[in-house]
Design goal:
about 270 residues, alpha/beta, TIM Barrel, nine-stranded parallel β-sheet, 9 strands, about 45% helix, about 15% strand, globular, binds zinc ion
C-alpha cells in the first residue's frame, strides 16, 4: 500500500533541482527537508471535504469514523493517490462531544478494541491513524497500549496530534515498535490567512531544522485556499511535500541502514 507513494516521491525528486540550486549546500537529494501536511476532521461536510481532497500533491487526510461523507471522500482521496488515515475520536479533558466511534477512558479492553476496530473498518483504504481531541485519553498508558497493539495487528502507523503536552501516545508507539510521527505545528487555530501563513512558515522552519515537519490543518476555507497556493511553491523553497506514509518509510529505511552499519561496526 505504502509503495504507491514512490511515484510522488519521484516527482518531488525531479523538482528538486530548483531547490538544490537555491539551497546551494545540500549535497544529496535525500537531505531536502520534508513536510507532511495532514487535513483533520474530514467527513462531516461534503463541500469542504471535496475541496480538501482536491489539494495538489501528497497531502494526508484524516477521516472521522461514521461521518456522513467520510467513506466516499476517503475513496476519492485514495483514487487520487493520497494517504487516508483514521481520525480517531478520543476523550478530552473538557467534556467536548466526540461524535460516534468515540474512545473513552471508561471503556474496558474488549469494548475499546471493538470500538476502534469499527472506526478503522469504517474508513476505506486506511493506512494509519491520528487522534481527534484526546487530551485525556492520550495520557493513559493502558489505552495507548491497546491502540498500538491494534495498529500493529493491522500494520498501521500512528501520528500523535499532540493535543496535550502530557501525551504519552508517541512514546508508547515507539516502545511497541509502531511506526509513528507527531504533530509539530497546527496551521489554523485562528482562521485568518495571516495566522495560517505564520504557522506555515513555522512548519517550514521546523522542517529545515529537523529535516522534516508534520503540520495539521482543518478543512476551513481559509486553510484550503492558502494551501492550494502555497503547496505548489514548496519545491522552489527547497522543501518536499510528502505523504505521512512516505516519511515513515524514509525513517524506517534510515533506521534499517543505521542498524546495518552498526552491525558492521560491531563486527
Ligand atoms: Zn480533530
Amino acid at each position: 500500500m505504502i509503495f504507491r507513494w514512490i511515484g510522488y516521491s519521484g516527482l518531488c525528486l525531479l523538482g528538486l533541482g530548483v531547490g538544490l540550486t537555491q539551497a546551494g549546500e545540500q549535497s544529496d537529494a535525500v537531505a531536502q527537508p520534508a513536510l507532511v501536511v495532514i487535513i483533520d476532521d474530514v467527513g462531516d461536510n461534503w463541500v469542504q471535504g471535496s475541496a480538501a481532497v482536491s489539494l495538489p500533491g501528497p497531502v494526508t487526510y484524516a477521516f472521522l469514523p461514521y461521518s456522513p461523507f467520510g467513506a466516499q471522500l476517503a475513496q476519492r482521496a485514495f483514487s487520487r493517490g493520497k494517504d487516508v488515515i483514521l481520525h480517531a475520536p478520543m476523550e478530552n479533558t473538557h467534556d467536548r462531544p466526540l461524535g460516534p466511534g468515540a474512545l473513552t477512558a471508561d471503556l474496558q479492553h474488549d469494548d475499546f478494541v471493538r470500538v476502534l476496530s469499527g472506526d478503522l473498518d469504517d474508513v476505506p483504504h486506511v493506512q494509519g491513524l491520528n487522534n481527534h481531541m484526546g487530551s485525556l485519553l492520550t495520557t493513559l498508558e493502558p489505552q495507548m497500549q491497546w491502540v498500538m497493539a491494534l495498529a500493529q495487528q493491522r500494520g498501521l502507523f500512528f501520528i500523535d496530534s499532540r493535543t496535550t503536552a502530557d501525551t504519552i501516545a508517541r512514546e508508547v508507539a515507539q516502545r511497541q515498535g509502531i511506526p509513528s510521527l507527531q504533530r509539530d505545528v497546527f496551521l489554523d487555530h485562528e482562521q485568518t490567512t495571516a495566522f495560517v501563513h505564520q504557522q506555515f512558515l513555522i512548519a517550514l522552519a521546523t522542517a529545515r531544522r529537523q529535516g522534516f515537519a508534520v503540520a495539521i490543518g482543518h478543512p476551513h476555507s481559509v486553510t484550503l485556499e492558502y494551501l492550494s497556493l502555497a503547496l505548489p511553491l514548496l519545491d522552489e523553497q527547497g522543501v518536499r511535500l510528502v505523504a505521512a506514509s512516505a516519511l515513515i518509510m524514509e525513517h524506517q529505511e534510515r533506521l534499517r541502514l543505521a542498524q546495518v552499519q552498526a552491525a558492521h561496526v560491531g563486527g
